[in-house]
Amino acid sequence: MSRILKNYFVAKTNQYNKIMKKQKVTAFVKELNVRMMKEPIALRYIHILGTVVFFSSVSSLVILLALYLNQRLQTSLFLVDDLSPNPLTSPPPHSSGSDMADEELMTRASMAPRGAVMNEAGPKVAFMFLTRWDLPLSPLWESFFQGHEGFYSIYIHTSPEFTGEPPESSVFYKKKIPSKTVEWGRSSMMDAERRLLSHALQEPSNARFVLLSETCIPLFNFTTVYAYLTRSTRSFLGSFDDPRPMGRGRYSPKMLPHVSLSDWRKGNQWFEISRRVAAGIVSDHRYYAVFKDHCRPPCYIDEHYLPTLVNKICPEMNSNRTVTWVDWSRGGSHPGRFVRKDIRVEFLDRIRFGSNCSYEGEVTNVCFLFARKFHVSTLEPLMKLAPYLYGI
Ligand SMILES: *[C@@H]1O[C@H](CO)[C@@H](O)[C@H](O)[C@H]1NC(C)=O
Ligand SMILES: *[C@@H]1O[C@H](CO)[C@@H](O)[C@H](O)[C@H]1NC(C)=O
Ligand SMILES: *[C@@H]1O[C@H](CO)[C@@H](O)[C@H](O)[C@H]1NC(C)=O
Q: Mind telling me which residue stretches traverse the membrane in this protein (predicted)?
């Protein structure tokens, strides 16, 4: 019996292979039927049994092979995983942090305490510089920070190709955070801002967070800026409803149901926020995903995501105005840039005292603490005016 079956198997396998090669499965089945009709009953049963056994062994073989391959694949995946650095215990890789490291960074930052933990000196202000390259106006900032150690922290996000490091005596020495390429107006810019916030949140004494560019200048001395920010119960994140095409016109109904047109806000990218708002921003994944998908140029995510997010999650914590002055009077999509000949006391004082706004429920004419965009050629005249501007 077993010999018959064995022979039968060999014959059937050969036959099967031959026929499969010709891709004539239907013909094979037909032939099998015809041949089985001609055979006596007993032989026909053996035939049927043989066919069943044959096909079930083939399928078992296929299943076993699949299981084996799956096992191999999983093992190799785990091996790769074991070899890669553990983001919890090893520092994020410098310059080219992976998305994994970014995720881990945000997660850690969103778990940081929401209220600032006071050191003996008092709360700190985190100055976060989002730059393309170096800081051309750094001498001005050096004199701004001079003598106020313990009241500020500095974080710099540059282009990853920039490897320059200021001298050890500089306040900017070793303040760069692991950075990635930023495309202006795209979500990679928001990623950089979130990266800066995540780093700054991990210092528990940081209570306020300012975002600055390399073209920003301080308009007052450190003492004034520090007091203005740390005494404010509200954040300074520009947020308004702009009915024009460059405002509401950039909204997409595809953002529904998460973001409606009445939630939609616009504002200056350069913000100053409290620790609670900063923690709210790095913890947000829901709205950020919606903006990444549906706010692409000509919708500029840096002008809409944070103003809209803060309007959604904590509107009562925002003053809705920025403390970073910029000149939009020239029109166009880029603000005015100032050069050496523009630097005069009257011009600077107009920015410093020329507007009215509300501060902690009172009207004040000190509405701006920083201004942009200042070309490197303004450094020399600004340094000359420093004693007047900063009382130093
Ligand atoms: C800022 O705007 C929000 C609405 O977006 C409002 O709830 C809040 O009271 C405003 N803040 C101030 C200080 O007016
Ligand atoms: C600011 O308010 C003061 C007094 O209330 C007023 O004299 C001045 O013209 C206002 N300035 C601006 C730019 O509105
Ligand atoms: C800072 O500027 C204010 C006026 O804005 C001035 O009263 C103060 O003396 C200055 N502080 C220092 C340390 O220069």
A: 45-69
**Strand 357-359, strand 362-364: pairing:** antiparallel
Orientation of helix 286-294 relative to helix 301-313, angle to 10°: 150
Note the ligand closest to the C-alpha atom of 391. 3
Same domain, yes or no, for 15 and 162?
no
Dihedral-angle region of residue 97 (phi above 0 means left; psi in -120 to 50 means alpha; beta otherwise): beta
pLDDT values of the chain reduced to their tens digit, one per residue, 392 residues: 455 545 555 555 555 455 444 454 444 445 545 454 555 555 566 565 656 555 566 566 554 555 444 444 433 333 323 233 333 333 333 334 456 677 788 787 777 777 766 666 689 999 999 999 999 999 999 999 999 999 999 999 999 999 999 999 999 999 999 999 999 889 999 999 999 999 999 999 999 999 999 999 999 999 999 999 999 999 999 999 999 988 999 999 999 999 999 999 999 999 999 999 999 999 999 999 999 999 999 999 999 999 999 999 999 999 999 999 999 888 777 889 999 999 999 999 999 999 999 999 999 999 999 999 999 999 999 999 999 999 87
Q: Residue 353 falls within a domain, yes or no?
A: no
Ligand 3 pocket, CB under 6 A: 220-221, 223-224, 391-392
Do 260 and 187 share a structural domain? yes
Does the beta carbon of 355 sit less than 6 angstroms from any atom of ligand 2? yes
Query: Which of 320, 338, 368 is a domain's end point?
Result: 320
**Contact 221 CB / ligand 1 (< 6 Å):** no
Using the mean position of ligand 2's atoms as its centre, give its distance from the Cα of residue 324 in Å.
Answer: 20
Residue 364 CA: which ligand is closest? 2
- Asked whether 315 lines ligand 1 (CB < 6 A), one says yes
Q: Which domain holds residue 67?
A: 2-77
Residue located nearest, by CA, to atom 8 of ligand 2: 356
